[in-house]
Amino acid sequence: MECLWRRHWTVENGTHYVLDVSMGEDESQVHTGKAPQSLSLLRKAILALLRARGWSNIADGLRYDGASVPRALELIGALPT
Q1: Is 50 within the bounds of a domain?
Q2: Phi-psi bin for 32: left (phi > 0), alpha (psi -120 to 50), beta?
Q3: Is the residue at 81 inside a domain?
């Protein structure tokens, strides 16, 4: 049972907290149509890309890549690395 709780909090702290706090998912005012699900999918994809690039502090990764259009485009694969 303890393993299940540990796994639950690993997901909660590693994903949901980051989406809520660093990416402002709970503050989103988009509520109609397919847009909320689409934006959630995009946030999760960006989170996965940042983690794949080695960022453990997602807020730092967002600031770093968000400060430069070429770096942001490179992150999503729109520019060659």
Answers
A1: yes
A2: beta
A3: no
Output the six-digit token pair for 36: 């909320």
Q: How far out from the chain centre does Cα 29 lie?
A: 18
Q: Specify the number of domains making up the chain.
A: 1
User: What span, in angstroms and rounded, lies between the C-alpha atoms of 63 and 22?
Assistant: 10
C-alpha span between 81 and 75 (Å, rounded)? 8
Confidence (pTM): 0.79
How many C-beta neighbours within 10 Å does residue 30 have? 11
Q: What is the pLDDT of residues 13-57, one digit of tens each?
A: 778 889 988 998 888 899 899 999 999 999 999 999 999 999 999
Name, in order, each residue with C-beta under 8 angstroms of 23's C-beta and a sequence gap of 6 or more. 43, 46, 47, 58, 62
With respect to residue 62, please indicate whether it lies within any of the assigned structural domains.
yes
Q: Are 19 and 25 in contact (CB under 8 A)?
A: yes
